[in-house]
Amino acid sequence: MAASVHDQAHLAGLFDAGDVTRLFTATAEIRAMLVIEGALAKVQGKRGIIPELSAQAIHRASLELQIDPGGLAAATAQNGVCVPALVAAFREAMQAPEHAQYMHWGATSQDIIDTGLMLRLRQASGLIDASLEQTLTALAALAGAHADTPMAGRTYGQQAAPTSFGAVVASWGWPLLEARRAFAALEFPVSLSGAAGTGSALGPDPAVLRGDLAEALKLSDPGHSWHTDRSPVLRIAEAAMQAITAFGTMGEDLIALAQTEVGEVTLGGAGASSTMPQKQNPVAPSALVAIARLCQGLHGVLHGAAMHRFQRDGAAWFTEWMALPQIVMGAAAAAQHGHKLAEGMQPNPARMAAHLQGDGLLHAEALSFALAAQMPRPEAQLETKRLAAEVRETGQSLGALAMARYPDLPASLFMPAAQLGSAPQEARAFAAQVRGA
């Protein structure tokens, strides 16, 4: 069994996070930290905090030198962070001690790690958002095409009242639109606060230097130290969780709609069994639900890790390292599956119609309101309950029993297409919203 399903060769397709996976490799993390060190030296050189010539040398070396992450392991195990070993390896590889001595001037390990994390999270968020956009485009097309396709609405797993397949698709899509808005509103702040968050070794004006670094890296300037304020991380995780939860709901619905007894949806690329030739397993929807279940638990862990003691908390920080990447990669993998499902699924209107034509009990609510025009509402509800009980006892349809007893009722009362309410409008409104976005 894999330690992480996202980086195992045989599970790469099942939990495929695409290019986001590479952003959470050791190589990508080290590369991001080197970018930070080079940019920091460059802005410090311009401010005269370190010699300009040394700043240029460090910046150039940060772009050219390769540091083996494996070579940092022993020191990282001892120090709890990789930055001391990274700085030592970089200085040695530069072979220019007169310049290398100014690398990492006044910064602390958390500045480099957190800022490097933000660079990678910015990239990851852009990739996830692109997948969300593709998914929404496919869902909008499906919702628009089937805005008027009747199917049974279900509450508590039971048939409730008619809806349309387009409206069901829209119900999956609306939260994804909200997730895209959450991603669009994210900020990725630079961290530059020094050993205890005071910036005391960063020169005469640490705030100005922090702004310089933010501008150089195209990150935001938080205006304060956030070593122990994990709000930026939590907001990014929350956007990811909005997408993950929406996809999980979509997965739950598709598992039920594709099951043998229902068969109202056919999934593109369904999975096969090792021994049962007839099986068409809902693999992708199952992956969506599994990702959601795991990440919901990790989201709680991440919130617990947001409570840092004093000016830095190793245990809380380490916990964040373990939980956050899985949430981000989970969102990326869910978006990949969601996109493929949205493009490949096909509704089965004939099966939907067959389920609607059964005993007619899903028209009970409409019948109770129609009878309320002839009698007080409480009596109409009681009469509908009596008719529903008779349906279960005799096997006759609700429509046949009701029309026999109340021949003045409109025939359209028991026609699903006439009882869709606002479902078609909901589907079309969603499709229009996506097109407008």
TrEMBL record:
<dbReference type="InterPro" id="IPR008948">
    <property type="entry name" value="L-Aspartase-like"/>
</dbReference>
<comment type="similarity">
    <text>Belongs to the class-II fumarase/aspartase family.</text>
</comment>
<dbReference type="Pfam" id="PF00206">
    <property type="entry name" value="Lyase_1"/>
</dbReference>
<keyword id="KW-0456">Lyase</keyword>
<feature type="domain" description="Adenylosuccinate lyase C-terminal">
    <location>
        <begin position="359"/>
        <end position="431"/>
    </location>
</feature>
<dbReference type="InterPro" id="IPR022761">
    <property type="entry name" value="Fumarate_lyase_N"/>
</dbReference>
<protein>
    <submittedName>
        <fullName>Adenylosuccinate lyase family protein</fullName>
    </submittedName>
</protein>
<dbReference type="InterPro" id="IPR000362">
    <property type="entry name" value="Fumarate_lyase_fam"/>
</dbReference>
<dbReference type="InterPro" id="IPR019468">
    <property type="entry name" value="AdenyloSucc_lyase_C"/>
</dbReference>
<dbReference type="GO" id="GO:0016829">
    <property type="term" value="F:lyase activity"/>
</dbReference>
